[in-house]
Amino acid sequence: MAEPTQLDKVTALIISQIDGEPHLLIFEHAGLQFPAGTVEPAENPDDAAVREATEETGLADIKFERKLAEAPEELEPEERLVLLTTPVYTRPDDDGPTWSQLRNGLRVRQLRTEDDFVHVEYAETNSKAIHPYVSYQITGWVPGSALADRVILLPFLTLWRHTSRMDSRGRKAHLPALLGTAIRPAKAQPVPASLAPAPARRALTTRQTGLPVSRLSRASPCEASG
After folding, report:
1. Residue from 158, 150, 156 nearest 204 by CA
2. What pTM was computed for the model?
3. pLDDT digits (tens, 9 = 90+) for 121-132
4. How many Å apart are CA 69 and CA 222, to the nearest integer?
5. Which of 68, 69, 34, 54 is nearest to 181 (CA)?
6. Domains located in the chain, CATH noted
7. CA-CA distances (angstroms) from residue 26 to 44, 71, 128, 182?
8. What are the respective helix, strand and coil percentages of the chain, to the nearest 5?
9. Tens-digit pLDDT profile for residues 145-180
10. Quick one: which of 173, 186, 181 has its CA closest to 226?
11. How many CB atoms lie within 10 A of CB 70?
12. Interval 50-72: pLDDT, tens
């Protein structure tokens, strides 16, 4: 069987100066989140952080600043991540029929191995239902080279330069609701664990970001300043 390889995941912490104060971008999607995603094959992690930040926020001119930390994510013994989008085969043979596909970044469970193939199971659960249930499930064979058994989490600091904008009537345009969280000056302390992304829960502190934080509070969209 081919040796599984490493998968890198990035998280982008986007900082912007608004009305003289640094703001940290967060958004709501199944809870509070930061832009994050999987590094594509042959992609530089720095570029991946900027790409994910741009794709998930729609903001332009996001600039890479620096990597904040690097930490492995602990996986369960049979847990694997899809490294490369791959077809799912009905048997351990790449000349055999395929019936589905697993995209990169998905978490699967390894059931067994045969030659260079791994028998995996992927299940998606409807967790919003009163009684959560598995909405669909994929079981089949994939090449071992398409899976990763090691995951490295990479939080990055990125910067977005906010400039004043005017609408068609000459009024100040509003920032996206995403930029509604202000960072208040205070004594340096860790970012609250409930708001920090998974890569940062153990390692990320305000000393690493260079920004003192007292609290992260949701607010209404901030009006663009001149």
Report:
1. 156
2. 0.62
3. 999 988 888 998
4. 30
5. 34
6. 5-73+151-218 (3.90.79), 79-150 (2.30.30)
7. 24, 22, 22, 10
8. 10, 45, 45
9. 999 999 999 998 888 776 544 444 444 444 444 444
10. 173
11. 13
12. 999 888 888 888 888 999 889 99
Report the alpha-carbon distance of residue 198 to residue 121 in Å, rounded: 24
47 DSSP 8-state letter: H
Give the number of other CB atoms < 10 A from CB of residue 181. 18
CB 105 within 8 A of CB 179: no
Q: Who wins on pLDDT, 184 or 12?
A: 12
Cα 172 to chain center, whole Å? Answer: 32
- Which residues contact residue 81 at a Cβ distance below 8 angstroms, ignoring those fewer than 6 apart? 7, 75, 105, 106, 107, 108, 147, 148, 151
Q: Which of 61, 37, 41 is nearest to 49 (CA)?
A: 37
Q: Which residue type occupies 129? A: A
Residue type, 210: G
Which pair of tokens denotes residue 98? 């395929």
Q: Which amino acid is at 118?
A: V
- Run of H or E residues at 218: strand 216-218
Q: Which residue has the tokens 């919003």?
A: 128
The whole-number pLDDT of residue 161 equals 72
Task: Say how far apart CA 77 and CA 109 lie, in whole Å.
Answer: 9
| pLDDT reading at 225 higher than 50 | no
